[in-house]
Amino acid sequence: MTDFAATRALFHLPEGVLYLDGNSLGPLPLAAEARAARVLRAEWGDRLIRAWNDAHWTTLPARVGDRIARLIGAPPGTVTTGDTLSIKVFQALAAALALRPDRRVVLSDSGNFPTDLYIADALVQALGRGLEVKVVAPEEVAAAIDDSVAVVMLTQVDYRTGRLHDMAALTARAHASGALAVWDLAHSAGALPIDVTAAQADFAIGCTYKYLNGGPGAPAFIHVAPAHADVAQPILAGWFGHDAPFAFERDYRPAPGVERMRVGTPPIVALSILDAALDAWEEVDMADLRAASIRLSERFIHEVEARCPQVTLASPRDPQARGSQVSFTHPHAYAVMQALIARGVIGDVRAPDVLRFGFTPLYLSEDEVVRAATILAEILDTGAWDRADYHARAKVT
After folding, report:
1. Which terminus of the chain has a lower count of CB atoms within 10 Å, N or C?
2. Is the CA virtual torsion 17, 22, 28, 29 positive or negative?
3. Which are the catalytic amino acids?
4. Considering only CA atoms, which of 386, 365, 395, 369 is closest in space to residue 8?
5. What are phi and psi of 66, to 5 degrees?
6. How far, in Å, CA of 276 to CA of 285, rounded?
7. pLDDT tens for residues 125-183?
8. pTM of the model
């Protein structure tokens, strides 16, 4: 059994704070501070440019990728890291469309994260050739997959509600119709067991600053199924995706396998911090994590519904149908969340009216979940949220 008391000790958790927002930004792993200091002083500081070889900086994207691969059920050598999630969405979708040149539709759903849809819209406009993005309700995706669809592009866990798509079933449906499947794992990697190999996902991408605790803006990852790895065409042909970057050839030759999905010079300091953050996962069994996550979220729902009739559950009732987050709606969600934060309970808000809470067993206990629900009830019962300063919106919600 996974010892979650031991994993909790690996994080800096501010005194007096109940942190239910790891689904948006994970807390600081203690190992990250020492690792960053080592990279800055001993590697960059003392070795200077020699550190590219001496400290093995050039292979860091692949080594970190292999550590993430274990968490998403991908074979070694099929995941690389670097750049942002938006860039990885662009790469995966462009490569998938090139593999289905006779089809015109990118199918997604209305619960997808806006960036994924923005990227898809911009890409099809740039490529032309009659491509279009079709967006349907989440429950209508399977029925909308037909022989016009080139790519089904979905986020496994809905960022607003936590609704969980069935990756294996929808990928199978896509393949049966001749389409490819691109999965965004931003809200599921590190939150629940994932097996992209068993699901036969064609491409998978994700960020690492949420449940993987890589820090704000931490590098994203991309997985390419082995069947596509040597034929996928990276529309962003950067020098680190070249077969021989330091040959400085005029013409681009893609590197073998997933390495071709690298673009520019890797962000070594950020990747090193992510590498240190992944140490916390070495002794974690994902089945244990999922069971603990469900216990925490079920307890929270029970406590909130018993104490807070003013809010309405927006997440699926069935724990197997949601990720590791729970959302409730309230007409003044923003002000309620500011009142919670002022009381030391940190969650976040998604427009227009969603109170969102993440459940991360690596550092969150059941007692803390109960305390958070108790504080929410106090705020709602007393109207403590209805203050002018709590209604004043900041840029980040």
Report:
1. N
2. positive
3. 113, 184, 209-210, 356
4. 365
5. -65, -35
6. 18
7. 999 999 999 999 999 999 999 999 999 999 999 999 999 999 999 999 999 999 999 99
8. 0.97
